[in-house]
Amino acid sequence: MSGPSGPFHQAGGWIEVIAGVMFSGKSEELIRRVRRAIIARKRVQVFKSHLDARYAGIYTVSSHDGRTVEAIPADSAAQIAQQIDPIAHVIAIDEAQFMDRGIVPLVTSLAGRGRRVIVAGTDTDFRGEPFGAMPDLMAIAEVVDKLHAICVLCGGPASRNQRLIGGRPVPYNSPQIMVGGTESYEARCRMCHTVPAGDAAQVPLL
Fold it and tell me: How far is CA 105 from CA 56, 90, 100, 116, in A?
């Protein structure tokens, strides 16, 4: 058994998950693995959520440093399933936190049919809580890499996404996904991450 760049079994598929906060290099790592697979003469197909149209647009996966790879936009796991190349060796899916729960049985089925599946996504939302199907994907994967960014306030390892509007942290009851909003994000550590109280259901300390 070898690492993500090599096969776990001579015949058979598996699932790799690249998780972490924004600005941690998830898309960059997905692009790196895709490019290595292409160099190895593997047939590769890349999908991304239609909600992510940053940088180069909806038909590419783009990293913050400007690297891109062509991708097929999809609204749901069903749309991905309808467009799967029957002879692709590697299936990559970016921004998986925006996908519906059907993504879990889909990638399980693909791996069971001998595909290498690479999934990247943000594992926690702006509240610091599990995001979409990412926890389930991390649980069923053979390999999970959790990446960290740098906290913009203290310089420590960042594991939280801080959503800001007008420079101020948004309250807990804000929508989990804000499409086309004026919000911005910062990477922060647990101690520097702030979600204004009063709107949150407070969890008592044990």
Answer: 30, 17, 11, 15
Closest among 147, 141, 89 to 114, alpha carbons compared: 89
Given the residues 95, 129, 183, 186, the one annotated as active site: 95
Distance from CA of residue 78 to its chain's centroid? Answer: 18
Residue with tokens 């801080």: 162
- 138 and 117 in contact (C-beta within 8 Å)? no
d(Cα 69, Cα 56) in Å, to the nearest integer?
10
Sorted by sequence, the CB contacts under 8 Å of residue 59 that are 6+ apart come out as 70, 71, 72, 73
Per-residue exposure over 137-169, b if at least 16 CB sit within 10 Å of its own CB, e if not: bbeebbebbebbbebebeeeebbbbbbeeeeeb
Q: What is the pTM of this model?
A: 0.84
Q: Over range 101-113, report the average pLDDT.
A: 97
Q: Copy the structure tokens of residue 184.
A: 């911005």
Residue 200, pLDDT > 50, answer no
Taking phi first (over 0 means left), then psi (-120 to 50 degrees means alpha), and beta for anything else, what does residue 205 get?
Answer: beta
Alpha carbon of 202 to those of 23, 88, 195, 196, 197: distances in Å? 29, 47, 11, 11, 8
Rounded Cα gap, residues 150 and 105, in angstroms: 33
- 95 catalytically annotated: yes
CATH ID of 14-148, from 1.10.530.10, 1.10.287.130, 3.40.50.300, 3.40.225.10: 3.40.50.300
